[in-house]
Design goal:
Elements: H1 4-15, H2 19-23, E1 36-39, E2 56-62, E3 66-74, H3 82-97, E4 101-106, H4 110-116, E5 120-121, E6 131-132, E7 135-137, H5 148-153, H6 155-164, H7 171-181, H8 187-201, H9 206-217, H10 224-264, H11 271-279, H12 283-293
Parallel strand pairs: 3-4, 4-7
Antiparallel strand pairs: 1-2, 2-3, 5-6
Helix pairs in contact: 1-6, 1-8, 6-7, 6-8, 7-9, 8-9, 9-10, 10-12
Length: about 300
Amino acid sequence: MVKPPHEAMHRIFQHDPGLFSRVSRFLGVDIPRPVRATPLPTDLTETSPVERRVDTILRFETAEQGDFLLAIEAQGSRNPDKPASWAYYTSYLWTKYRLPTALLVVCQDHTTAKWAQQAVSSGPPQLPTLTLRPVVAGPHNMPVITDPEEARADLVLASLAAITHAAEPAVNAILKALSTALRDVPEDIADPIVEFTAQGLGKHPAKHLWRNLVAVDLSFYKSYLVEEIREEARTEARTAALAEGLAEGVTRRAAEDILLVLERRGLGVSDDVRSRITGCTDPDVLRQWLDRAVTASRAEEIFGGE
């Protein structure tokens, strides 16, 4: 099953194809900004029953280097079968479109990134017929954008920075900078950024921070994600209020029981004692006082010298 982080890690490049040229400088390569970028069909299935599908394929047209293809794969963990699949993707695309083909792998953890960027050859060591050398974007080389102004200058890159650092301590500062940067951005621009970021964070704890930041900093947006967050917040508030009401009811009844026992036993209850009993909100303490009320000779004794 395809998970939201997987989708966000490659679809963000479909949303803004020019992102790759901006990301490339962090990858140690220099890719010029494309004049035009065209998403291509991702289904690489041939007549054989084996289905092969790339996450995202983009065709770039540049003034300096001509046209080339970029296959983008989101990778969540090490998979020994992937290099062979990636080699198939790139060679097939090269054959089909007769264009140079590059491979970008996007990861969210250092271990997967280190594994993915290793060169893999299809032939024996002395005959490396085809060598696969993906470029990898991950927490090891993506920028940590914690300045709202820097985030505002490139919102999509800031979103990718948050996605690739989802498991890193720095993600909290990145998310705060991004939410601040989005405050004055038109809704049609902010919505996909908000949702890409939420999807990319997946089940990482940072997702809860992002949902809270969106609910507070971007409260005027009406996207489905914001509405979902608000509904969750309303549900949590109702649950908290219910729990608080139940707790108050329990302590109130416990206090009433103590006073009833003291009164039935004919023990005088001063205003100070009554105020102390009704003002207590600790169920364990009230239970202890109730036990003592059964045998106490004076109402004050229920406090046990406390």
